[in-house]
Amino acid sequence: MKILYICTHNRCRSILSEAVTNHKSDGSLVARSAGSQPSGEVHPLSLKYLAEAGMDTTGLQSQSWDDLEDFAPDLVVTVCDSAAGEACPVWFGQSLKVHWGLEDPSKLQGSDDEIAAAFRHTIQQIETRVDALQDIARLDKSLWPAALAQQGAK
Fold first, then answer.
1. Domain 2-151 belongs in CATH node 3.40.50.2300
2. Is the pLDDT at 104 greater than 50, yes or no?
3. CB count, 10 Å around CB of 138?
4. Taking 60 as the threshold, does the pLDDT of residue 154 lie above it?
5. Are 16 and 129 in contact (CB under 8 A)?
6. Which class for 117: exposed (0-12), middle (13-18), buried (19 or more C-beta within 10 A)?
7. How far is residue 118's CA from residue 112's CA, in Å, rounded to a whole number?
8. 20, 55, 79, 80: which one is catalytic?
9. Which of 30, 45, 47, 88 is an active site residue?
10. Which one of the listed residues 3, 4, 6, 7 is annotated catalytic?
11. CA separation (Å) from 58 to 21, 50, 90?
């Protein structure tokens, strides 16, 4: 299953999701990330906490979804937090779509310990969801829509 994680700026949550997915994948998932208005740089704390978790950050970059035209994802996952009033970019391709609604740890104001905890929590949330996606990816492709709907966007 090819997965494209999208958000507006592609600097934190979509980057975390790409790295976690590719790290945890048993070969059934291949992930990329992009933004509708990429910032052009990965948030430094994203790289820090991915490395702390033992995940490779090589090649992670903030990029436009236009740069991934040839990727042809099976699944597009939006990761913006609409509960916090963020507007999610809209993907018009033929891919299956789900929304994860992750809080942005890079926007947290607090102590270093609070910020670290927020990044670690977000990475853990993504890991749990990626485990579920791996189970879905093992199914016949015709069953993916129902399995994704059953899993829910969470």
1. yes
2. yes
3. 12
4. no
5. no
6. middle
7. 10
8. 80
9. 88
10. 7
11. 14, 11, 28
Residue 18 tokens read as 């790409």
The arithmetic mean of pLDDT across residues 64-87, rounded, is 83
* Spatial CB neighbours of 49, under 8 Å, sequence gap ≥ 6: 16, 116, 119, 120, 123
Distance CA 57, CA 72 (A): 23
Q: Is 66 exposed, middle or buried (0-12, 13-18, 19+ CB in 10 A)?
A: exposed
Is residue 88 flagged as an active site residue? yes
Active site residue 80: yes
Give the DSSP letter string of 32-51: EEEESS--SS--HHHHHHHH
Place of tokens 């969801």: 129
Residue 12 known to be catalytic: no
Tokens representing residue 89 in the block: 């970019």
30-35, strands of its sheet edge to edge? 30-35, 2-7, 75-78, 96-99
User: Mean pLDDT over residues 130-147, rounded?
Assistant: 95
Per-residue pLDDT, 153:
44
Residue 110's identity, in one-letter code, is G
User: Please, are residues 116 and 49 in contact by the beta-carbon 8 Å criterion?
Assistant: yes
In the chain, the amino acid numbered 69 is: E
